[in-house]
Design a protein that fits this description.
CATH topology of the largest domain: Arc Repressor Mutant, subunit A
Radius of gyration: 29 Å
Strand content: under 5%
CATH architecture of the largest domain: Orthogonal Bundle
Shape: rod-shaped
Structural class: mainly alpha
CATH class of the largest domain: Mainly Alpha
Organism: Skermanella stibiiresistens SB22
Pfam family, one: HTH_Tnp_1
Low-confidence stretches: 65-70
GO biological process, one term: DNA transposition
Number of strands: 2
GO molecular function: DNA binding; transposase activity
Number of helices: 4
Helix content: 40-55%
Protein name: Transposase
Number of domains: 2
Oligomer: single chain
Length: about 130
């Protein structure tokens, strides 16, 4: 008994299936028509949602291209990394602002008069 070769699908085939699924076609009927497992179509859809069409491998194309000992990520992964780095930068700016505001408020607090007494801030001078 000989082993059956695994089927290889082009990126265009996979994108076509995902587009049809997104257009509202029934996944079971689509899978039967294309001769693939439903789960495979869902896997392709997940990859497209996470990384765009580039995330789908074509025939024999790797997800990342080895360049010596360094692995270069696909463009969609690089874009995601850049987006996350911008988000971290914005969060750091917010954190710095709130830390300065807290130091400012703590510097304005008057020490308590005695044990158990509550410290207070100066009242606004209206």
């Amino acid at each position: 008994m000989s082993k059956e070769e695994p089927r290889v699908f082009s990126r265009d085939f996979k994108l076509g299936a995902v587009r049809r699924l997104e257009a509202g076609e029934n996944v079971s009927a689509l899978a039967r028509e294309l001769g693939v497992a439903r789960q495979l179509i869902h896997t392709w859809r997940k990859r497209v949602l996470e990384g765009g069409p580039e995330a789908l491998r074509g025939k024999g194309q790797p997800h990342a291209v080895p360049l010596g000992s360094v692995v270069v990520a696909p463009a969609s992964a690089q874009a995601r990394v850049a987006e996350l780095e911008r988000m971290i930068g914005r969060q750091q700016v917010d954190l710095d602002f709130f830390q300065r505001a807290l130091r400012h408020i703590e510097g304005r607090r008057q020490p308590s008069v005695g044990l158990g007494a509550t410290a207070s801030t100066k009242s606004s001078e209206r």
